[in-house]
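Section 3.1: Structural characterization of target chains.
Under the original work plan, the team committed to producing a structural model for every single-chain target entering the pipeline before any wet-lab resources were allocated. The record below documents one such target. The sequence was received from the expression subgroup and is listed exactly as submitted; it comprises 101 residues.
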Amino acid sequence: MMRNGMSNVLATPQTQAPSATSALTDFYREEFVKHQRCLQQNREYYSAKVIIEAEAALAHILTRLEQLCCKDDADAVVSRLLHQIDLVTRLSARSDSRQAH
Protein backbone atom coordinates (compact mmCIF):
# COMPACT_ATOMS: atom_id res chain seq x y z
CA MET A 1 0.00 0.00 0.00
CA MET A 2 2.76 2.42 0.86
CA ARG A 3 4.54 1.44 -2.34
CA ASN A 4 1.58 2.65 -4.45
CA GLY A 5 1.42 5.92 -2.56
CA MET A 6 5.13 6.51 -3.10
CA SER A 7 4.95 5.81 -6.81
CA ASN A 8 2.12 8.33 -7.16
CA VAL A 9 4.17 10.96 -5.33
CA LEU A 10 7.22 10.28 -7.47
CA ALA A 11 5.21 10.32 -10.70
CA THR A 12 3.65 13.71 -9.90
CA PRO A 13 5.87 16.65 -10.78
CA GLN A 14 6.66 18.69 -7.67
CA THR A 15 7.34 21.98 -9.43
CA GLN A 16 5.68 23.68 -12.31
CA ALA A 17 7.26 26.07 -14.73
CA PRO A 18 6.63 29.66 -13.70
CA SER A 19 3.96 31.44 -15.70
CA ALA A 20 4.72 34.56 -17.69
CA THR A 21 2.76 36.55 -15.11
CA SER A 22 4.80 35.25 -12.18
CA ALA A 23 8.04 35.91 -14.07
CA LEU A 24 6.87 39.46 -14.76
CA THR A 25 5.85 39.89 -11.13
CA ASP A 26 9.23 38.61 -9.92
CA PHE A 27 11.07 40.94 -12.28
CA TYR A 28 9.13 44.02 -11.19
CA ARG A 29 9.28 43.03 -7.51
CA GLU A 30 13.06 42.92 -7.76
CA GLU A 31 13.10 46.37 -9.39
CA PHE A 32 10.87 47.92 -6.72
CA VAL A 33 12.95 46.32 -3.94
CA LYS A 34 16.06 47.93 -5.48
CA HIS A 35 14.32 51.29 -5.15
CA GLN A 36 13.41 50.49 -1.53
CA ARG A 37 17.04 49.71 -0.75
CA CYS A 38 18.20 52.86 -2.50
CA LEU A 39 15.76 54.94 -0.50
CA GLN A 40 16.94 53.35 2.76
CA GLN A 41 20.62 53.79 1.93
CA ASN A 42 20.12 57.46 1.09
CA ARG A 43 17.62 58.45 3.80
CA GLU A 44 19.73 61.40 4.89
CA TYR A 45 19.17 63.11 1.53
CA TYR A 46 15.37 63.03 1.72
CA SER A 47 12.89 64.84 3.91
CA ALA A 48 10.88 62.80 6.39
CA LYS A 49 7.74 63.48 4.34
CA VAL A 50 9.32 62.11 1.14
CA ILE A 51 10.54 58.99 2.96
CA ILE A 52 7.11 58.32 4.48
CA GLU A 53 5.28 58.84 1.18
CA ALA A 54 7.75 56.83 -0.89
CA GLU A 55 7.79 53.95 1.59
CA ALA A 56 3.99 53.92 1.68
CA ALA A 57 3.80 53.94 -2.11
CA LEU A 58 6.36 51.13 -2.43
CA ALA A 59 4.58 49.03 0.21
CA HIS A 60 1.26 49.53 -1.57
CA ILE A 61 2.72 48.65 -4.97
CA LEU A 62 4.48 45.56 -3.65
CA THR A 63 1.28 44.40 -1.95
CA ARG A 64 -0.72 44.73 -5.17
CA LEU A 65 2.02 43.75 -7.64
CA GLU A 66 0.60 40.32 -8.49
CA GLN A 67 -2.80 41.84 -9.24
CA LEU A 68 -1.24 44.57 -11.35
CA CYS A 69 0.83 42.09 -13.35
CA CYS A 70 -2.30 40.11 -14.24
CA LYS A 71 -3.83 43.06 -16.08
CA ASP A 72 -3.75 43.25 -19.87
CA ASP A 73 -1.82 46.52 -19.71
CA ALA A 74 0.50 45.35 -16.92
CA ASP A 75 3.73 46.45 -18.58
CA ALA A 76 2.45 49.97 -19.16
CA VAL A 77 0.93 50.35 -15.68
CA VAL A 78 3.80 48.88 -13.69
CA SER A 79 6.44 50.60 -15.83
CA ARG A 80 4.74 53.92 -15.16
CA LEU A 81 4.77 53.23 -11.41
CA LEU A 82 8.41 52.22 -11.57
CA HIS A 83 9.22 55.42 -13.44
CA GLN A 84 7.39 57.51 -10.83
CA ILE A 85 9.36 55.85 -8.01
CA ASP A 86 12.55 56.39 -9.99
CA LEU A 87 11.80 60.12 -10.13
CA VAL A 88 12.18 60.10 -6.35
CA THR A 89 15.10 57.69 -5.88
CA ARG A 90 16.97 58.60 -9.10
CA LEU A 91 18.28 55.02 -9.08
CA SER A 92 18.41 54.72 -12.86
CA ALA A 93 20.55 57.87 -13.10
CA ARG A 94 22.98 56.41 -10.55
CA SER A 95 23.11 53.10 -12.40
CA ASP A 96 23.72 54.82 -15.74
CA SER A 97 26.61 56.87 -14.38
CA ARG A 98 28.27 53.77 -12.88
CA GLN A 99 28.09 51.99 -16.23
CA ALA A 100 29.56 54.93 -18.12
CA HIS A 101 32.80 54.96 -16.12
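The mean pLDDT is 83.
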